[in-house]
Write a structure and sequence with these properties.
By secondary structure, the protein is α/β, with parallel strands linked by helices. The chain is built from five helices and five strands. Helix content is 41%, strand content 19%. The model has no long low-confidence stretch (mean pLDDT 93).
Length: 129
Amino acid sequence: MEDRFEGVRVMVIDDSKTIRRTAETLLAKAGCDVTTAIDGFDALAKIADTQPAIIFVDIMMPRLDGYQTCALIKNNKAFKKTPVIMLSSKDGLFDRAKGRIVGSDQYLTKPFSKDELLSAIRDHVKVVD
């Protein structure tokens, strides 16, 4: 069964151009409408306009890290139900726990696969047929 995610709005926040481009390409091929942001400030500026159904956020970023970004998203009434998936190159228990504390819904270790990205969307976004 081929997953169709036509029109699902996804935001990818990562300071790495490679990661942003990879995620954007994989998600766009699955039909997602992808917005990228280079850091938390950039994301917060775009989030109200794009109203993403799910947000993937890197943990290690300058200015505003993934934990702070997630906390700000989850503390906003309009977006607190928006699933936030943390992305990290470290697969540590501490990072996972800290992600849970700030309200993240899932944790993916980089490099992530297309299947991991799509399964996160499948798990957290109600895709309407």
